[in-house]
Write a structure and sequence with these properties.
Helices cover 38% and strands 7% of the residues. The protein has helices at 3-10, 42-57, 88-105, 112-119, 139-156; strands at 21-25, 69-73, 109-110.
Length: 179
């Protein structure tokens, strides 16, 4: 590609708001066993994630955004005792694919799978503490995700931590002038 084309593509996005943080969280449904219609083969899943990252990181992409920070999020473990249509080991493999990609591309990973597995005492039945139905997160599950993301922001992207962000709106509605 000629440099003029690359320059034009890099400057296409100047009129849109800048995305400060992009989280990419796929895999719980992709790891559904074949022939489930949601199943995506593991290698294709990893390629899809890499494609999404490259959409933001590649200067030749119309979505190029060099200032956007990225966090990859692993799928959570499944509790196959609650959800018989899912496979515990398959979901673990998809979480490993996210970790592998994060390492290869130097992108932080919120390892939800490992955090929930460890917090459950490595007991699949105890995952019900975090999973509403063996697959979907409940309040405790989302708290794990939130805490992991905030830890990554604090350690890797401290400039966008909420304690360091500039206030955009007045802190109190009473300070807004009404005409």
């Amino acid at each position: 590609m000629r440099s003029a084309q690359i320059f034009a593509m890099q400057h296409q996005q100047l009129h849109v708001p800048k995305v400060q943080l992009l989280t990419i969280w796929f895999g719980a449904n992709d790891a559904a066993p074949f022939p489930n219609r949601q199943h995506v083969p593991r290698d294709q899943y990893r390629e899809n994630l890499e494609h999404l990252v490259n959409m933001v990181r590649s200067p030749t992409s119309p979505y190029y955004s060099p200032s956007t920070r990225i966090i990859l999020i692993t799928p959570p473990p499944v509790n196959s005792h609650q959800r018989q249509d899912r496979n515990f080991d398959a979901t673990k493999s998809y979480a490993e694919a996210v970790n592998e990609l994060g390492t290869a591309l130097a992108i932080p990973v919120a390892d939800v799978w490992a955090a929930m597995w460890d917090a459950s005492g490595r007991d699949e039945r105890a995952l019900e503490k975090f999973l509403h139905d063996g697959l979907h997160l409940n309040e405790a599950g989302y708290e794990v995700v939130y805490n992991l993301i905030m830890k990554i922001i604090e350690e890797k992207y401290p400039e966008i931590h909420y304690d360091r962000l500039e206030t955009v709106f007045p802190p109190y509605w009473a300070n807004v002038e009404v005409e």
